[in-house]
């Protein structure tokens, strides 16, 4: 066997060689997350800044990676670079992990001879964006989980518990109060057609997700409505503003022309409303308008942000000024998320109390009425 011959050349005499069994679950490794790409970018920037050749840097990073998928990705990029491709060309072959923004910035860094600085900026940018995403998920996860549990408990009461009370009520032979009758009717409906409700709910959610992906107008409407949701809307708005400023600051600082930078920024805002507004800004800037005037005309950007952009344009420090704006709105997101938990907690408690408590009252109401009559 070839493997045995290679081992003998290394002074190893194997007895028997068996193929290592693949694990039943997770054999191909964990999914590559944006945070993994940020860490990889930071490591690559540090090694290039230290004078390590690009191919060798990829080899060193690959040896330290435990995730097989990420390791294969790094090895594929290294092989492409080793065969003569530029780093941006190699990254472009993996659009699932490296978007247009990443590739354009790397291309600009290669052209200007400052690849290490650009990679460091990309890493900082990705870490900032992932931090904002994490905070928004944190803000929405708690209330969503509590509401889901409340719905599950309500369904359990309607399907399992209330039928037991209904059998007792039938033995009374008396008319039920209207509130109790309503809950009993809901229980009978859930027992007979509850599975239809579940299927309809899943189909509705899946339909909305698919329609948002395929229909730009519907996506715009949905994102505009999301910005108007009480309490949650301001968080989404500040997040979009922070991502707009941060992405534009990073691309402009890397030497990407403003018109090209705005095209890249549009897809990074995370909201179709701001994406369309950014594309409109790009068209206005391309025809000669200043950035601050184009932003003002959309009526989506706060006056403070527009004024700071104007100052940055006049002073020739647009990237630095936008970076300050991004930091400001990122801090605003942090503060709003912290306040959101304290605001939503009493609302959620009241919601659960009304739903579950109301059903308990409905079940005991006939008993209370009978006790009053006796």
Automatic annotation (TrEMBL):
Where is this protein chiefly located?
membrane
Q: Transmembrane residues, as ranges?
A: 140-162, 194-211, 347-367
Entry keyword Transmembrane: yes
Signal peptide range in chain numbering? none
Q: Which Pfam families match?
A: T2SSF
**Where in or outside the cell?**
Cell inner membrane
Q: Report membrane topology.
A: Multi-pass membrane protein
Give the UniProt entry's GO cellular component terms.
plasma membrane
Keyword line? Cell inner membrane, Cell membrane, Membrane, Transmembrane, Transmembrane helix, Transport
Limits of the Type II secretion system protein GspF domain:
40-163, 244-366
Please give the Gene3D superfamilies that the UniProt record associates with this protein: Type II secretion system (T2SS), domain F
InterPro entries this protein is in?
GspF/PilC, T2SS_GspF/T4SS_PilC_CS, T2SS_GspF_dom, T2SS_GspF_sf
Q: Name one GO biological process term.
A: protein secretion by the type II secretion system
The similarity comment for this entry is: Belongs to the GSP F family.
Q: What name is this protein filed under?
A: Type II secretion system F family protein
Its source organism is Wenzhouxiangella sediminis
> Which taxonomic lineage does the organism of this UniProt entry have?
Bacteria, Pseudomonadati, Pseudomonadota, Gammaproteobacteria, Chromatiales
